[in-house]
Specification:
This is Large ribosomal subunit protein bL28m. This protein is of the alpha+beta class. It is built from 12 helices and 6 strands.
């Protein structure tokens, strides 16, 4: 839970966040549907340690997956930690066990950012990156709820910001054309992958700078500009009550 939710003024800021950010933020918590939790070998029964046959276990809901803080600094490819029990064949007792992804440190190169990065990845994420032919394509094609990593979303935001940079488009036209299908407006790219706390801080900073800019302009100039615009548009000015109150004794 965001600590800003305890402050009323911060809760009001959430209502003023951009609509595209709120939409993507909700999608980030959408459960992954293309994950299979069971290995279907065609056998409806399983044999226990006492040589008895039992129907295989099938759950209506997926098992609870734990995503520790370390997963946010790596690329686990949607994998997490699952806790459960296993049965010891010798004694027939159940003992707790934890299953986690197979992790390894790997060196990746970003074609858009033009730099090498040493990242801890799971075997599943590594296979996905190889299948999509590069780290850039993996981050751009994979939904945020499947990436599920602050590191991955941070790199994705950098890539999107780089793609909309006019200087990059002039200096690297071949690479820009290669990733042209993933280009989004700069205003949206700046918000990709931000946590709720980061988005609130960014929105508060934008509003503060806007208020500061408006305060730096004298009211005389602002009101004069508004009056000229209304006169040019043919709007009716309610000056009669003002004149009557000014010259009345």
């Amino acid at each position: 839970m965001s600590r800003f939710l305890f402050y009323p003024h911060a809760r009001d800021v959430i209502q003023r966040l951009p609509e595209f950010y709120k939409k993507n933020y909700l999608k980030r918590f959408t459960p992954i549907t293309n994950v299979s939790y069971f290995e279907d070998d065609g056998e409806p029964y399983t044999r226990a340690s006492n040589n008895a046959l039992y129907p295989k276990e099938h759950f209506d809901v997926p098992p609870k997956v734990i995503f520790p803080e370390e997963s946010q600094r790596a690329l686990w490819g949607g994998e997490g930690i699952v806790t459960g029990f296993i049965e010891v064949k010798r004694t027939g007792t159940r003992v707790p066990k934890t299953w986690g992804p197979e992790l390894r440190q790997h060196l990746f190169h970003s074609e858009v950012l033009e730099r090498w990065m040493m990242i801890i990845v799971s075997l599943t994420a590594l296979k996905q990156i190889e299948r999509m032919k590069g780290l850039d394509f993996y981050l751009l094609k994979t939904p945020e709820n499947e990436i599920n990593s602050r590191l991955g979303l941070h790199i994705k935001r950098e890539i999107l910001m780089k793609l909309v940079d006019p200087e990059f488009q002039r200096s690297k036209p071949d690479i820009a054309a290669k990733y042209a299908n993933f280009v989004i407006p700069r205003e949206e790219a700046e918000w990709v992958g931000l946590t709720l706390d980061e988005a609130i801080k960014k929105q508060m900073k934008i509003e503060y700078e806007k208020q500061r800019l408006e305060a730096s302009v004298p009211k005389k100039i602002t009101l004069s500009k508004t009056l000229i615009e209304r006169l040019e548009s043919g709007g009716k000015l309610h000056l009669i009550p003002l004149l009557l109150s000014k010259y009345s004794i």
